[in-house]
Amino acid sequence: MTKENTFTLHNDVEIPDIGFGTWQIPNEEAYDAVTVALKNGYTHIDTALVYQNEENVGKAIKDFDIAREDVFLTSKLPAHMKGYDETLRTFDGSLTNLGVDYLDLYLIHAPWPWDDIGKDCTEGNIASWKAMEKLYKDGAIRSIGVSNFSESDIQALLDACDIVPMVNQIPFYIGRDQKNLLEFCKQHNIVVEAYSPLATGQILNSPEIQDMATKYGVTPAQICIRYCLEHDTLPLPKSTNESRIIENKQLDFTLSPEDVQKLDAMQDVRAK
Fold this sequence. Notes:
The protein is α/β, with parallel strands linked by helices.
């Protein structure tokens, strides 16, 4: 499933193994942040309609001296949008916002609305997925997937639809390894993308992580991002600070199996 610097999806589309996340980056800051990321070698950019920054994400890609086919661009169907026609219409809106004529990856952002987490939206998810299958078959999207989906949420799509999701984007970081979900995705050749690999910064002050960073001569953030790669998940670090954007991609080291096990054994150390 992986080779150096890329993951290969089950439809043979290659995706760069570190993405630049844009969650919580306001539209007015997104242009500069994405430009800095592109300048420093990122070729995988992740956004979503609900981030309200698609316009400037797309403008930054267009204005930068890089061919569109050399950037892997992801966006997402809002979690509350469920249904066939709604999905087609919303997808077209994202293309317009981004100023592109295709996406490399399109995801259902969550199986339920964010203001009603856990609601059974199986019927709506299936309808949305069938619309995404159409867009994929029509060539408007190179790959399709889901986000925040559990095993049962994914199984519902497998039971009712034709195409197995290529990606499941989930929160994954030291202290939240989601072993069962990772194993389920692996069994179905679904690449797991790890969003919030730094737990929005809340695990960087962990003494264990800081000690390990000292041992390897790297930063706590680099340990956290490398941990995701050691578990064959694709990290999506986010920053608006150029030095951190550069640092987050400098991962030319590996963690020993023993140190991975130590990190696996950690409990969720986010600030309470």
